[in-house]
């Protein structure tokens, strides 16, 4: 076990993730944790994260000096490095200039264990205003930059290491090796921890927290809520009830696929409730064309349906959510996240359900880690690797009024598109792709007859964070094949467009 002590830095979860990547188990605790608890856990190493404060100010987060006298290796990063120096008798001040962004760092201590195998000059990611002016007694300077005399310092004998930059950030080119050197080398962690150990630990935690209580989860069929359902099911079986609302705006056969995995004939032990609310949604959406209004109706109707089901179930002890770490960052709750609750995933929902506490078993994981957990739990690959699908579903991929007929057209066209993309082996390269139904009809000719039918738009984007995106470069033959199959197989369509727009100025979805 390695303990990450969180001082409120923006990269603290990333530190934990990098440690996990070294196949070493770690847990994050707030810096407020009592030293006796740390001693009881007997960790092999401790990492102090960055943070926004100045360690020499009176009310800044700090830690008792005893932490550095336990004989346990400690690595301080950024604020953590400064705090280590400050507490042990070094000097931290505010220089004239701070350092931000990619910076060249020169390694001075050639035999440093943390920098083993790292070139004497390498690029690191700096983000600090304060700096270490003088190291604490017993420490040696291990690295510097042009503006920072102490970019790293260490007391090798006591296994105390201070790094001013951020090895956890990918811009620090050899950061992974540095953290590996610390946890696997200095701390001598064996490195036999894998995602199955995450599952085991999470299951134990859930059992302890839930006891014999009841848990309710809104299952959307997306990756996160599905993995949360699988994990909770493994931990507490039928104490978990999943409500799956089929709003009639899912992709083709998706409702049945979700039911096949989580329903009574599936492999998971839980109570599964499927609500077929298609007609309800279609009638609410009839005649509505304004995109924001459509979104609002779909969102509100979801709350209403869920609320009705929750009432039938009665009071529950926990409401589970598939919140994952990037959701927490996006809702601006990154710092010291271990002590902050986020209700980001289901806006407003908690007000409508009678529950005592929220449980979020995936809140420390990144998306690719969630997928690994999903595979570990035996959730089928096509579900685990599903592309993102918006909450309002096909409702925002049908421009203008939503009707049952249009839903069917877009479902069929989209299924063909996905099938062909998979056949061409492109499905894991393109981050998101789908068919949408434009609200445009045009004249065509089919079998000597005049047609006046809808145009389908194909969208495919490459993106890292979904904030910006570019149209994917799909081979023309693939597009042609998709076009010809859609026109031939989907009634009501006589034209197919490929959307070349990047984001910005376009968005990924159409509404
Ligand atoms: P846009 O269209 O804003 O989409 O470029 C960016 C990403 O977000 C997804 N998206 C949503 N996801 N609820 C969601 O859960 C929504 O209301 C929603 N709207 C867009 C979209 O699919 C894309 O991945």
Automatic annotation (TrEMBL):
The residues responsible for catalysis, as annotated, are 78, 166, 168
The positions annotated for binding ATP are 220-226
Q: In which pathway does it act?
A: Purine metabolism; GMP biosynthesis; GMP from XMP (L-Gln route): step 1/1
Query: Which EC number applies?
Result: 6.3.5.2
Q: Which domain of life is it from?
A: Bacteria
Q: Which Gene3D superfamilies match?
A: 3.30.300.10, 3.40.50.880, HUPs
- Please state what class of enzyme this protein is: ligase
Protein's job? Catalyzes the synthesis of GMP from XMP.
Q: How does it assemble?
A: Homodimer.
HAMAP family, per database record: GMP_synthase
Tell me what this protein is called: GMP synthase [glutamine-hydrolyzing]
Q: Which organism is it from?
A: Sellimonas intestinalis
Gene name, Swiss-Prot/TrEMBL:
guaA
């Amino acid at each position: 076990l390695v303990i990450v002590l969180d001082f409120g830095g923006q990269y603290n979860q990333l530190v934990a993730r990098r440690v996990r990547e070294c196949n070493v188990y770690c847990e994050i605790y707030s810096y407020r944790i009592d030293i006796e608890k740390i001693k009881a856990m007997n960790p092999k190493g401790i990492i102090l994260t960055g943070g926004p404060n100045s360690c020499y100010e009176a009310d800044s987060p700090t830690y008792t000096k005893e932490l550095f006298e336990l004989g346990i290796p400690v690595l301080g990063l950024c604020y953590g490095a400064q705090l280590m120096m400050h507490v042990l008798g070094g000097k931290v001040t505010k220089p004239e200039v701070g350092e931000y962004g990619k910076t060249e760092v020169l390694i001075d201590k050639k035999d440093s264990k943390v920098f083993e195998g790292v070139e004497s000059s390498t690029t690191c990611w700096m983000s600090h205003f304060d700096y270490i002016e003088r190291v604490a007694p017993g420490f040696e300077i291990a690295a510097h930059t042009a503006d920072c005399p102490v970019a790293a310092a260490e007391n090798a004998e006591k296994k105390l290491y201070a790094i001013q930059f951020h090895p956890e950030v990918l811009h620090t080119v050899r950061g992974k090796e540095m953290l590996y050197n610390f946890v696997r080398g200095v701390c001598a962690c064996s490195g036999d921890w894998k995602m199955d150990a995450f599952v085991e630990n999470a299951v134990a935690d859930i059992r302890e927290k839930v006891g014999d209580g009841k848990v309710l989860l809104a299952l959307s069929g997306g990756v996160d809520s599905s993995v949360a359902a699988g994990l909770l099911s493994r931990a507490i079986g039928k104490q978990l009830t999943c409500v799956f609302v089929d709003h009639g705006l899912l992709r083709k056969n998706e409702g049945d696929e979700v039911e096949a995995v989580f329903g009574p004939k599936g492999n998971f032990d839980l109570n599964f409730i499927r609500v077929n609310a298609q007609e309800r949604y279609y009638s609410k959406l009839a005649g509505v064309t304004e995109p924001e209004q459509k979104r609002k109706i779909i969102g509100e109707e979801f709350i209403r349906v869920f609320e009705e089901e929750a009432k039938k179930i009665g009071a529950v002890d926990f409401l589970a959510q598939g919140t994952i770490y990037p959701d927490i960052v996006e809702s601006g709750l990154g710092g010291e996240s271990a002590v902050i609750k986020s209700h980001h995933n289901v806006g407003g929902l908690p007000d409508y359900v009678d529950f005592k506490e929220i449980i979020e078993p995936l809140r420390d994981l990144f998306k690719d880690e969630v997928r690994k957990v999903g595979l570990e739990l035996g959730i089928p690959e096509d579900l685990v690797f599903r592309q993102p699908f918006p909450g309002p579903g096909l409702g925002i991929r049908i421009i203008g009024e939503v009707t049952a007929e249009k839903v069917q057209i877009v479902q069929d066209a989209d299924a063909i598109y996905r099938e062909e993309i998979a056949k061409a082996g492109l499905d894991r390269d393109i981050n998101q792709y789908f068919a949408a139904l434009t609200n445009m009809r045009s004249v065509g000719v089919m079998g000597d007859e005049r047609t006046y039918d809808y145009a389908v738009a194909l969208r495919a984007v490459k993106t890292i964070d979904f904030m910006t995106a570019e149209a994917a470069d799909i081979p023309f033959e693939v597009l042609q094949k998709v076009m010809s199959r859609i026109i031939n197989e989907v009634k009501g369509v006589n034209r197919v467009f490929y959307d070349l727009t990047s984001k910005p100025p376009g968005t990924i979805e159409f509404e």
